[in-house]
Amino acid sequence: MMARLSAEGARAAVEAALADQLVAQAGQADAALRELPVEVLVAMGGDRSAADLSARLDALGAGGGLRGAALLGPDGLVVGNGGRWLPGAAEQDLIDQALAGRPVAGPLYRDRSGELYGTAYHALTGHPGFVVAVEGSAATLGAIDALERDQRRAAVASAALAALLGAVLAALVSGPLSRLGRELSAARPGTPPDAIGEYAVREVRQVAAAARQLLAAIQERDAELQENHRREVERLNRMAAEIAHEVGNPLNAVSLSVERLATMDDVQRRARVVARLREQLAELSTIVDRLRDLTRPLSPDRAMVDLAELVAVVGEEVPGLTVQMEGLDGLRIVTDRAMVAEIIRNLALNAAQAGARRLDVEVASLQPGLLVLSLRDDGPGIPEDQAEQVFSWFHTTRATGSGLGLPHARRVAQALGGRLELVELRPATFLLSLPTS
């Protein structure tokens, strides 16, 4: 009886520590997401913004060792975790508590495989109506369940032994369990693993080892979440500044053109300024369209594609550039024609705008399941100090460039299951790797 009571105390302590852990993880997720313009992304992009937010939630869940993480919004909106949050209906009262400003953990439950899990909810700071939801494993309690079963079997055997032997066993098991229960009760997120002591009794030692692993995982998770949050904030700040710069230049030009119109009497001069104003507005529209592409989900529509015919068509779209092919005749692969054309067109346009007159497209490697194309132009090449930045968002060396083409082309290649790499600076040479089926 004493051993069972000690096991129940240890279980209660572990449950409390797990609840604290899940609430802390929900708080960390809130800190990582609160800076995002969630309402704007959801309202503007629909599935596009959902895909971007889902990727962030998946990264937070993976970094924290969670089973799942989601963002619950008004009208039943679920972002992340595959667009579903099964505990939601049963735990609506907990979600309401979180919306009221009280972070809360839900009761433990078992899934179909018998594994224990728990949930926690935290209101998304600065975004009324949105709640961060996390789901984590409670596997540590399994060790206590096994311990309790062992103790019950030991109690049955002890009943047949002398009272003295029973007292000795009780002292050996219940004493360490009581001590372990006190240590677990004192543990909180951030408590070092060595706060849980070493034990001689095998079953107690297993529970203590599981608790130390849990505390170590919490420490590692907190450090990773903080670092991920720092990097995300830096990236968002940098992107916001770059977007402001990209949009600001044409906006300033539009403003100057409008001011000039207000002071012009000559009809022909006004017509020229209006024409220039249309060009500036078109430039702004292009930048906005490309920014929308950053959150557009990429889903390849695969079909049989004749690469020689595709490259020839793209080459005709770029004035002043001759496209030469080698090894592409009769080469057909299963891929998304439009997405491959977008990558090659981007590289061809960049080459032409840099002063190239010729682009050589060759088969660098062809093996079962993988095709590698080499794309080399005869332009001035890429400066060494720009090599590491060519795939950075908004990086450009042209006065009218947006810095979105190459990083978007790499993103498209990755969506196809391939890669886009810069392998030589002069002449500028890129390798495009594509699955063939």
Walkthrough of the structure:
The model has no long low-confidence stretch (mean pLDDT 78). Strands 1, 2, 3, 4, 5 and 6 form a six-stranded antiparallel sheet that branches. This protein has a five-stranded mixed sheet with strand order 8-10-11-13-12. It has 437 residues and is of the alpha+beta class. It is 54% helix and 16% strand. It has helices spanning 2-33, 38-45, 47-63, 92-99, 140-159, 163-186, 202-262, 267-293, 307-316, 337-353, 405-415; strands at 68-72, 78-79, 104-105, 109-110, 116-123, 131-137, 303-306, 322-326, 332-335, 358-367, 370-377, 419-424, 429-435. It is elongated. It has three domains: 1-234, no CATH class; 235-293; 303-435, 2-Layer Sandwich (Heat Shock Protein 90), CATH 3.30.565. The chain starts with a helix and ends with a strand.
Brief overview:
It contains 11 helices and 13 strands. The protein is of the alpha+beta class and 437 residues long.
Q: Radius of gyration, Cα only, in angstroms?
A: 31 Å
Strand percentage lies at 15-25%
Which residues form runs of ≥5 with pLDDT under 50? Answer: none
Outline, from the CA principal axes? elongated
- Biggest sheet, in brief? 6 strands, antiparallel
Distance linking N and C termini: 64 Å
User: Averaging pLDDT over every residue, what do you get?
Assistant: 78
- The helix/strand order is HHHEEHEEEEHHHHEHEEHEEHEE
In DSSP terms, counting alpha (H) and pi (I) runs of 4 or more, how many helices?
11
Residue share in helices?
40-55%
Q: Which structural class fits the helix and strand makeup?
A: alpha+beta
How many separate domains? 3
Care to count the β-strands? 13
